[in-house]
Amino acid sequence: MARFAIALAGAALAALAVAPAVAQDRTGVTDTTIKIGIPGPLTGPNASFGAAAYGIAAYYKWVNDQGGVHGRKIEAILADYACNEAKGVAVAKKLIHEDKVFLINGGICSGVALAMRPVIEESGVPWVVSTAVNQKITEPVAKNIFHGSQTSRDAGVNMGKFALSKPGARKIGLIGHTNEWAKGYLDPMRDQLKAAGVAPAIEVTMERGQTDATAQVLKLKEANLDFVGVALYEPELAIFLRDAHKYGLAAPKVGSMGADYVNTEKRLGAREPMEGFFQVFQYKDLTDGPGMKKARDMIVPNLPAGQQMTDFTFYGPGSAVAIVHVLNKIGRDLTREKFVAEMEKLKDFDTGIVAGKLSFSPEDHQGAHQLYVVGYDGGKLSVLEAWGKKAQ
Amino acid sequence: MTGTAGSGTDRASFAASGRVFWLLPLALLGLPLVIGSYVQYIVNLTLVYVLVGVGFNVVLGNLGQLAFANAAFFGIGAYATGTLMYHLKAPFPLALCAGALAGGLAGALVALPALRGIRAFYLAIMTLAFGELMRWIYINADAVTLGSMGMQVPRPTLFGYVLVTDVDKYYVFLAVVTLLVAATANLLRSRVGRAFTAIRDNELAAASIGIPTARYMVLAFAWSGVVVGTAGALYAALVRHVSPEAFNLLELILHFGIVMVGGLASLAGSILGAAVLTAAPEMFRDLPGYEELLIAILMVAVLLLMPKGLASLLARASPLFRQRYFRD
Amino acid sequence: MLAQLLVSGFAQGCLYALVALAMTVVYRATTVVNFGHGDLVMAGAFCVYVLVVLAGADFFLSAALAVVLLFALGWAIQAGLIRPILAGPHLSLAMMAIAVGYALRGGARVLWGREVLPFPKVFPQGIIKLGPVILSPSDLIVAGVVAATLAVLAFVFLATPVGKTAQAVFQSPRGAALVGIDVGAFHRTMWGIGAAMAALGGILIAPITLLYPDMAASTLIRGFAAMTLGGFGSLPGAVLGGLLLGVGELLVGAYVSTKLIDITAYLIIILVLLLRPSGLLGRPAVVRV
Fold first, then answer.
1. Strand positions, DSSP E, chain A
2. Fewer CB within 10 Å, N- or C-terminus of chain B?
3. C-alpha A281: how far from its chain's center?
4. Is residue C277 over pLDDT 60?
5. Overall number of domains in chain A
6. What does the alpha-carbon distance between residue B220 and residue B118 come to, in Å, rounded to a whole number?
7. How many CB atoms lie within 10 A of CB B147?
């Protein structure tokens, strides 16, 4: 009897193990097309982040112009959620049930991506997160969800490391929004500092929409800092740097991703406030530098009319390059199960866009970790690895 | 102010017309059979916004008070429900009641300045400040609200049964919405509702004929808070993620849009308005980026050309509807 | 630090004062509170951008033109959208103002929502040191413009018949019409002036906030706070309220917590309306029932 039970259990286990291999999901794949959904904020106050979604679509267009993937063209479906959670869930359901896409490649605005996670996880549709930085989107691991870009934890750790790489830097202050996006950077940065025995000397906040940073700058200045960690969106970052320059807050500053370095300088209309400001940088090279030429040639000519190239344009296509690589590797017989399995096998893959290399495993779905820092070094905009040390 | 009992219709036909109300939810029972999963979600979201519109309309349309705290009621309901479900693993019916109660209390609280004689634009500005203050509290009371990242609300459970699919939620939502809309309709048709109207049309006159205006004002705000707070509770169960940004000024403009486009002081209008504006992203799918502009133009057009909103179109089409659900 | 905070708060307060002044002018003359004022501020700044950057015009010419254009826009909003529903409830008027503002913002988003626009650099760069206090030239320019605007408004409302007209129209439009005042034209003009002042505000704010469709969203509620604190409908009150709010925000931020900067305005609104609804310089804001 006991033996029978064991046999039965064994058979059941075997059936379970075999079952996924039997149920092959080819939704969204036809003889000639592969449907890929690209959710992002194309409207609303955060529409400028939508550039990443247009960048992904432009890359797929380039892939199609080269003949597609094993004879199939990629049918990219852009879907707008205006950085609104209720709309984000709607968009996820639309892509899954209405458009019946094969996979999803996108996700910008971490709050919305977090709201989308349970919906997409339950559906089993593969999702390669392109831009949203919160590590909780892919933590704990969901079988079908991958992070194709660095998380804010990587960035925060890098911000801490960079500040500490300046010889003698001990007094470090932090300024950020009160939102989760900013915490996503400043919490790991704080941990990184604490690991080195440095507690932040002062922490101040700046709400979105403020047009003045006098109180914050004066408080930071009084604390007599060696370095300042900054997690602010672009409009507020420009205001903070302007006031920091005005009131002579001379300590060097390291900022998070989410603001564009060149655009910030454009907003300020002056170079001086940018001196001494460094920013975590997620690409191989400056977006107008030689290291990104190949990416520019693929993407920029394929952007829709009226869509300008910004730094954000490339904040997404890196994950798309990895997807196309995996699709090519799988071959003609394409299933979702195979896609997930092949993604998990991807090791040291160079996207030509994202800094460092992408590696996934069944236990770790966060592929990218390497980051640089961009800023003026000796009067020239450069990509740095550490204080005073250019990236290779 | 005609349209309710006593305008010459005989009692029997009026009672019959009352039963027509129940036909709509009955007809809607079969809806999940004919629509897909995505549309089902949009329908559920529409049900949430039906309550938002119906509740807001009580204060805006029936009581005639310029209150801007609706997004705050919505958020308070969602947070009360989400907090109970997340921290205390409360069953959904209990959390739902808590959301309604919290909304009602917030409503009563907002009515207090109105009792001190603050009206019109002053009330508008004050309630606007209240809404923004609540958003600051959601962000900064992070021990309870989990701050700006928001809360991942667990799956709602109903008497031990877990509501997994949107169809499950749909039947629960439909029941809750039907009950609250019916209750609101009855309230507005009653002596209380007539008192609201009297206050809206002439507060001094209402007070002078012995209507205790203060008490009715608190009641209207509290009921509005209950309905909108319940909407927040349903939102928490549907989207399962509650965060401060979901209750900002843009959300408030959407609420205004639902009431104005549907029709001030019209229950059916709020239902229509919710349906139209929730489906708006679908309608504008071919015009990405134009949604805000088009909703704004729709609002301007309704204000200029159809001050009674879409409900006035219904009224023109159906005499029965006009007699029972429309006032002009 | 205190001296610096007071001076910087004063400069910041001047911007709030300008917003509050413009809304007060419209309110005093027409009894309508323009909930879309922030978006008019944005529209004024975008006008300058279009004229300078896209059409290549001179900055000062563009600024003057933008003020005129916004005057025309305000005039047209009143004539085309507000007047037809003027007999309706307050609610419709407030909604119309919100909807118009929302439309302006939506339009700006369609045209420029996805990119960052550098506003032409017109204010002299650099800093001015007065002892321990640091000022930027734009601080002085903003303060100068606000002072000049206030002086002009004070003159117009106190020393010309406009003040009496405004009072008459505010109290009873019908009575004013009976004594020969063209109430319609007066309303349109005042909306025009309010919008023109919004353009002025936009031109002053844009070099600071830079151009994006939501650039003025947070100034609106601060303008309300300034009006409430100073006393609703009072021109000097709007200025006083704006300045106090500007200074108050910085003091709270520096000495209590930077987290409180954002809610200073909301708390002021709630506390003032509960405790002293007439504000510092205004008339009572409550109705007796």
1. 33-40, 73-80, 103-106, 127-129, 145-147, 172-176, 202-205, 227-231, 253-255, 277-281, 372-377, 380-386, 389-390
2. N
3. 11
4. yes
5. 2
6. 16
7. 19
Write down the pLDDT at residue A3: 54
Contacts for C288 with CB less than 8 Å, ≥ 6 apart: B117
Structural domain including C197 reads 2-216
- Give SS3 for C27: helix
3-state secondary structure of A354: strand
The partner residue sitting opposite A48, judged by closest CB among C116, C219, C259, is C116
Is residue B233 within 8 A of residue B99, CB to CB? The reply is yes
Give the model confidence (pLDDT) of A378-392 as tens digits.
Answer: 888 999 999 988 886
Shared domain check, A251 and A159: yes
pLDDT in tens, A108-130: 988 899 999 999 999 999 999 99
Q: Is residue C62 part of a domain?
A: yes
- Nearest Cα neighbor of C30 from C237, C198, C223, C171 is C171
Residues recorded for chain A: 392
Furthest-apart CA pair in chain C: how many Å? Answer: 59
Taken in order B119, B125, B128, B132, the sign of the CA dihedral is negative
For B284, other C-beta atoms within 10 Å of its C-beta total 18
Q: How does residue B44 score in pLDDT terms, banded at 50, 70 and 90?
A: very high
Q: What percent of chain C lies above the pLDDT cut of 90? A: 45
Q: Is B147 on the interface with A (CB under 8 A)?
A: yes
Residue B288: predicted pLDDT: 64
User: Is the CB of B41 less than 8 angstroms away from the CB of A114?
Assistant: no
Q: Supply the range of the domain harboring residue A88.
A: 33-150+289-345
Cα B301 from Cα B295, distance rounded (Å): 10
Instruction: Judge if A243 and A384 occupy the same domain.
Output: yes
**What does the block give as tokens for A25?**
């999901």
Measured between alpha carbons, how far is C62 from C46 in angstroms, rounded to an integer?
11
Q: Are A215 and C116 in contact (CB < 8 Å)?
A: no
Q: How far apart are CA A365 and CA A146, in angstroms?
A: 5
Find the Cα–Cα–Cα–Cα dihedral C217, C221, C223, C227, rounded to 10°: 160
Dig out the tokens for A136 from the structure: 């909780």
Interface of A with B in 57-86 (CB under 8 A): 78, 80, 82-86
Q: Is residue A19 part of a domain?
A: no
Q: Is A185 left (phi over 0), alpha (psi -120 to 50) or beta?
A: alpha
Q: In what order do the strands lie in the sheet with A380-386?
A: A202-205, A172-176, A227-231, A253-255, A277-281, A372-377, A380-386, A389-390
**C222 located within any domain:** no
Q: What was the pLDDT predicted at A23?
A: 64
User: Closest to A310 (Cβ–Cβ): which among C8, C115, C252?
Assistant: C115
Question: A73, exposed or middle or buried, with CB in 10 Å at 0-12, 13-18, 19+?
Answer: middle
Straight-line distance from the first to the last Cα atom of chain C, in angstroms, rounded to the nearest whole number: 49
pLDDT digits (tens, 9 = 90+) for A350-375: 999 999 999 999 999 999 999 999 99
- 3-state DSSP assignment of residue B93: helix
Residue C152 has pLDDT above 50, yes or no: yes
Q: Do C4 and A242 touch (CB under 8 A)?
A: no
Among A131-135, B250-254, C51-55, C282-286, name the one with the lowest average pLDDT. Answer: C282-286
Do residues A259 and A237 make contact, with C-beta atoms less than 8 angstroms apart?
yes
The answer to whether residues B151 and B242 touch, using CB atoms and an 8 Å cutoff, is: yes
CA distances from C29 to C156, C187, C189 (A): 13, 7, 9
